[in-house]
């Protein structure tokens, strides 16, 4: 095998120009796949953090069965009562991997500055729970870009009448921090209820479609507006590790059903439509790019090996004449192709490391589609896809040399020696 590797390496060095061109095609194709995989990995991670911490979905969301559909028409019937909230919270906090359980209430209505009114969609949560959920929403690099200051929301536990408004909503009503507004909603019984509120600050939802209609309020304020003392429409559950999400969902679901609670638990991925849509789009783009690069690699290696076989036909005849079997000829050229592909992928990996470092250090930012703020352009290292691509390209590159090598090995020794 050692002699086979030496012969294969000498074969590559015999025509350095053609080998170099093929090697560069493999290298740049492999680095392009690795870089795009790293970029999508960073996007997935950012979207996951934004969904869990930024949108404050948590890892799991618990609600009474039917709340997501029938609850829109009859919210009082499908809300968790104060006794259910307390009992379920105690049960969940007994689990070792549950870090926080936060009651939530969604509400909507009209908000007015005294002169003009507009619709709003509100979310309520306890201020301490909001602070805990927003931890780890961004990486250090993302914090340095200035995103964190605009995305962060903060409620005052000492003043439950203070609300946070999205930037577009505050601009529409000409409200600034410290300004006064009025919120009008329907209670659970269908009666109108209004309260005076103070604007504590503004935030950016990160989504252009909701940045002009969103508001956050304390849970106490929402319960007063809705006349829903002690109630909640759902519980947001934060775990100590995102990787445990699915396993904990199944475990908690079984335990709550055994305790007699008719509830359903959904993961953040099931609730975040935007994450699922972006994930599916990038997976399709990755597959498209991967198929193109793989085709280029196969054609480059097959063309290189085909030319090599033609030029070395007399050499093949000589090797056959001194006793090398047909299988040995095939093995020689497939090993040569394998070496070429492995070296090309290794060089491509080094290129991707260099480009990744340069991109991450360049402080580049852009505005994604349907976003209201700029985000930094960062590239991670997706070890799983990188290893998969490396192995698959090595296998495909090796197989690409099989047909021309097999065709040369089947040629008669006399014809091969007399080839011109």
UniProtKB/TrEMBL annotation:
It is a multi-pass membrane protein. GO terms for biological process: lipoprotein localization to outer membrane. The chain crosses the membrane at residues 20-39, 284-310, 330-355, 387-405. Keywords: Cell membrane, Membrane, Transmembrane, Transmembrane helix. Residues 288-412 form the ABC3 transporter permease C-terminal domain. GO terms for cellular component: plasma membrane protein complex. It is found in: Cell membrane. InterPro entries: ABC3_permease_C, Lipoprotein-release_system, MacB_PCD. It comes from the Bacteria. The keyword Transmembrane helix applies. The keyword Transmembrane applies. Residues 19-254 form the MacB-like periplasmic core domain. Belongs to the ABC-4 integral membrane protein family. LolC/E subfamily. This is ABC transporter permease YtrF.
